[in-house]
Design goal:
The complex is a heterodimer of chains A (about 60) and B (about 150).
Chain A: E1 12-19, H1 20-33, H2 37-62
Helix pairs in contact in A: 1-2
Chain B: E1 3-10, H1 12-24, H2 30-48, E2 57-64, E3 70-78, E4 81-87, E5 90-91, E6 97-101, E7 106-111, H3 114-130, H4 137-148
Antiparallel strand pairs in B: 2-3, 3-4, 4-5, 4-6, 6-7
Classes of the chains: A alpha+beta (about 60), B alpha+beta (about 150).
Chain lengths: ~60, ~150
Amino acid sequence: MARPMWASGAVVRYAVRGTFEQAEAWGLAASVKGLPIPVFLALAADDYAERLKRRIAREERKR
Amino acid sequence: MKVATFSVRATEAQSIRWKRAADAEGYASAGSWLADAADAYLKARVKTGLPLPLAWHLGRFRVVLMDGREIEVRGVVSPPFGVYQGTSHGPDGNKLRTLVHLPGRKVVATLRSSRQCRALAAELAPVMIRGDPLQDPGRIIERHQRESA
């Protein structure tokens, strides 16, 4: 049986809207990774949120 | 303006992380932040010149070896690529790993580690999927083989 691509215990749903241009870019990136677009969006958001957290921590250390 | 809508599922922990990030960047909802976060992720990848890493999982696939034999091997798979332990002569217990293009069952390259094979696959994927005319797959493979030697 195929593995589910969502993290187990996924409970919250978000509607993400994008222009057709954005959706095309997400679709290309998702196809390169072999993932459906919503799963790619979740991965990208996790990565970006982690970088944002590190950036905020760095800025706070500087102050 | 026409828009496309995607339903993204998250765990509670992910949802909390995303809401925090959306708050920090002044977004009213995590949903609207998600779209911009995906764009920012792609922009950062382009800026650093890093290829998108592929998603790999364990699996079996067929490969045509140097002597023309076709065998099934075990390894990691991220279509259209697979990586197994061994060389183009067949699987073995050595450290060398071989990258295979699954549709043609052809060996792409044998490199020193699985990490190097995955990096090569990540760089080849957009070229092979999109048929990027600016990039020559042969040159990319040669560069990775040089760096691996």
